[in-house]
Automatic annotation (TrEMBL):
It comes from Tersicoccus solisilvae. PANTHER family: CHORISMATE MUTASE. InterPro entries: Chorismate_II_sf, Chorismate_mutase-related, CM_bact, CM_dom_sf, CM_II_prokaryot. This is Chorismate mutase domain-containing protein. Residues 17-108 form the Chorismate mutase domain. Keywords: Isomerase. Gene3D superfamilies: Chorismate mutase.
């Protein structure tokens, strides 16, 4: 794995050390949130991969617009409750779903690469 330097910055050397200290503390939380996002997204794509296989096996269309409308309306409500911009929540979900639909299409076309699972021959075994 490539090394991650949490203190790497382009802000220059003139930043007040106390400000830099506070910034690095906040960035440490941001790094944890970013890692969580990756894990959450990986699990979501693992689930949608199963949906893609199921849909392909039963010749169902990749997209389900009615389901998507429900998901978007729900996420917009949750975003409002959480004080997150609902337009951003919708854009983010739509971005993910569009990618899922591309994956579903590729599974049904037979052009999808095999999912890389730990221990499989395709898995990246580099340290
Ligand atoms: O639930 C489905 O039918 C899916 O294919 C999953 C999913 C999603 O990513 O949530 C993706 C595409 C569909 O249009 C709706 C939802």
């Amino acid at each position: 794995m490539d090394s991650f330097d949490p203190s790497a910055s382009s802000l220059g050397k003139d930043v007040d050390p106390a400000v830099m200290h506070e910034l690095l503390q906040i960035r440490s939380s941001i790094d944890n949130f970013d890692a969580t996002l990756v894990y959450v997204l990986a699990e979501r794509f693992r689930a949608t991969q199963r949906v893609g296989v199921l849909k392909a096996e039963h010749r169902l269309p990749p997209a389900d617009p009615t389901r998507e409308s429900m998901q978007i309306a729900r996420l917009r409500r949750l975003a409002e409750e959480a004080h997150l911009d609902p337009a951003f929540a919708e854009k983010f979900l739509t971005f993910i779903i569009d990618e899922v639909i591309r994956h579903h299409q590729a599974i049904s076309d037979g052009t999808a690469p095999l999912p890389v699972t730990p221990g499989s021959a395709d898995a990246d075994t580099r340290a």
